[in-house]
Design brief:
With 128 residues, this protein is α+β, with helices and mostly antiparallel strands. Helices cover 32% and strands 21% of the residues. It contains five helices and four strands. It has a four-stranded antiparallel beta sheet. The termini are far apart.
């Protein structure tokens, strides 16, 4: 299932910056189906969503292609990644969520989110 119509972007009252990350899932269609289910609007954990917002993240999107996850994180320009993810790791239920997700991921189950997700380097954009 691919979306050829695109996804709407939110407009923010501040200038933003974007972080892009990737993570590999285990190559198991049933596990991938369950991973997607656990992230849907009905099954996700509201405390995790609220925690993400509480550290200053404006938007977080995860895309899937095969076993590859691609995450886009939008933040204000003054956002400090290390500081925010340090706070996020200490929030209630965050460690539990990471453990809950680890069964699907090709990563160390004890690793924090900031260790599992690999930052990507932008290599192209429509230069001004």
């Amino acid at each position: 299932m691919s979306n050829t119509k695109g996804y709407k972007q939110k407009a923010y009252p501040v200038r933003t910056k974007r972080f892009c990350q990737t993570l590999e899932l285990k190559d198991n269609p049933e596990l991938i189906k369950e991973y997607v289910k656990r992230h849907n609007e009905v099954c996700h954990w509201p405390e995790i969503r609220d925690g993400i917002r509480s550290v200053g993240i404006l938007e977080m999107e995860i895309y899937l292609s095969g076993t590859k996850l691609f995450m886009i994180v939008e933040t204000p320009l003054d956002f400090d990644w290390d500081e925010a993810f340090g706070k996020l790791a200490g929030l209630p239920r965050q460690a539990e969520w990471e453990e809950y997700m680890s069964v699907f991921q090709q990563a160390d189950p004890k690793a924090a989110s900031s260790e599992k997700w690999q930052q990507m380097d932008r290599i192209f954009y429509l230069y001004e």
